[in-house]
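Page 47, continued from p. 46.
Same chain as before, 401 aa.
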Amino acid sequence: MSSRSKPGSALKEEYTRELHVDEWRVFWRNLRCAFIAETIPGMIYREMMNALGFLAKPYFFRFQAIPGFITVNMLVNEGYSPKEALEKYAWLHTIGGRGKAEIVEADLDKPKVVVKVYDPAITQWFRRNVKNVKTEFPFYDCSWLGYSWVGAVKAALSEGSGGSIPVTYDSGKCFALGDEYCEFHVERSEREEDPFQDLEEDYLTHSLHSKSVKSIAHASSGRMNEKIWKLIDMLEVRGDGEICIGRERILLVEGGMYSLAQMLLPVELFGGVVYGAYMRSHLDYGRFLAKQGRKYGLERVLDFFLSSASSMGWGKLELVEFEESRVVLGTYQSIYAETAKDYIAKTGLKRRPVCTYGWVVEGILNYFAEVEGKPPFVSKEEKCVAKGDNYCEFVLSRKTS
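Result:
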């Protein structure tokens, strides 16, 4: 029985069997992952396209090839054949809430892989939240999905003689533009363009396959953190490629998708414009949460965000200090920092903070500060595991003038 025809209960049982929990970390097989509300990447991607225009593809979205590459590479290393690994990736795509993925064609000799994705996450968010996608973003084509499959195919090709072949995607159909599904044709690039230029594949392979990561996953008892398992138990896993808690669509995403693909590498290569857009999207998400929960007050909104993010596998987030003009946020086992740390060490990149939680908290604080007519806060990540500290810490202080 395919994942498309299985009832949600059977899918969830099969799905949770491959999840492992260790303290505040979540693993799918040996891969560090986390759950995330669809709204967050939706807001990030819209801000990136607003800021970068058509350059969002080469400056930002092409790095979505990283999680696809890392995941399929891991599966091949576990003994799956390249084609089996692609099918398993499609299965993870489906039960991970990103949409029901179906491989229509997989010819790795050409190479050509055709994938359909029904009810695709984030794309569905754009369809609901952007009045006219094509008018606002004439270049729109669901790049994040297309490049994720480019990375997956690239990893499958790396097992044979085709690893050096540059591959790209063409978007045949797009759900956000009114089609029934998204369709991607991944094949050799006629212009020899390769989203992996500037990236070190050996380091990508190593970054999520270190002995420390594997030993954590295998040592896990599977139920070491009841708060995370309580959230997992609340998930409704549907056969149509959606995971929900109530009306909120939830995704399971690879750690490399955020720490490397959406933060570290785009900022390293293209600097402030990407950093600024990424920061603004997180500030906006914090304000969005605060506006939704305004009637509950600041402290309850903060508690909701910190406890939700912790239970979703992003690390343990807690307030260390909460004063009128100063707030300190501590983060332990941060998925951003722990995923990026090894990559930074192996590539010799400059050590610097990579976490984003403080921006969300800043957005929450400043929504209420504005309502109350008080000066806004500014956040700074003073400590980060990615730059050698033992834990991550944000200090948020009110502006004095």
